[in-house]
Amino acid sequence: MVIWKPWDVATEALGFLGSLVMAVPWFRDFAERFSLHRVRKIVITGPLTRLHTRLVEHLKISIERPRSTDFIYMLVGLLLLALSFGINLWKLLFSAS
After folding, report:
1. How far apart are CA 31 and CA 4, in angstroms?
2. Where are the domains of the chain?
3. Mean pLDDT for each consecutive 10-residue tract of the chain (97 residues)?
4. Rounded Cα–Cα distance for residues 63 and 31 (Å)
């Protein structure tokens, strides 16, 4: 039976959270691309054509434009992963057993 020590649990949790936080921008990008795909499939005629065209253009711009929050999510995720690796390295270098 494996006994988990608190530092082991902390490193696993930090590694998981770090990778999850880094994936948030990709999840959002996938959702926006999927909604753009669904909007493009709609065929509209008449007075709503201009609205549909503007909506598609807005979604394209939203996908292509870089966001500062994506950079922040990436930094926070990398920080969590670095903390996880740092704890493991600390345990490896300075463990008594």
Report:
1. 37
2. 26-85
3. 79 91 91 90 87 91 87 93 91 76
4. 10
Q: Looking at residue 46, what DSSP letter applies?
A: S
The one-letter amino acid at 1: M
Two tokens, residue 33:
């691309």
Whether this model's pTM surpasses 0.85: no
Decide: residue 15, CB within 10 A, 0-12 exposed, 13-18 middle, 19+ buried.
middle
Residues 38, 42: Cα–Cα separation, whole Å: 7
Reported residue count of the chain is 97
Give the count of beta carbons closer than 10 Å to the beta carbon of residue 17. 16
The residue to which tokens 């696993």 are assigned: 12
Cα–Cα distances in angstroms (integers) from residue 18 to residues 1, 26, 71, 79, 91, in the given order? 28, 14, 14, 7, 19
DSSP state of 47: T
